[in-house]
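Can you make up a protein sequence with its backbone structure tokens?

===
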Amino acid sequence: MSSDRDCGIDSPLDQYVDPSVNPDSVSDHQNDSGGENDDITSSSLITKAELIKEQRNDETLRGCWKLAERGRGSFLIDDGILYRREKILGQSFQQLVVPERLKPEPKPPDPRNVG
């Protein structure tokens, strides 16, 4: 029996799946900057092709791709994009799997809340 752990991720999958990323913000159109080597950041809109390339090039997702390609685990490929199937309270949905390079930098703790 295959599981999400089989994709080579040793820590919880929630670390690799960003539920706050809206797949609708992934554009089918080229970005306005026109540069081929533009740096991709978590705050920028990216094209569908760029997202697929980033997902495919992310070493941490290799096992997830293998599971999805075999129809195993909770991963699936929809229109070339890697997602994870999830079901909460009977509601099924797909979570976009966010490549490491596109994840936002963690914010430092607020010193006012320490103590």
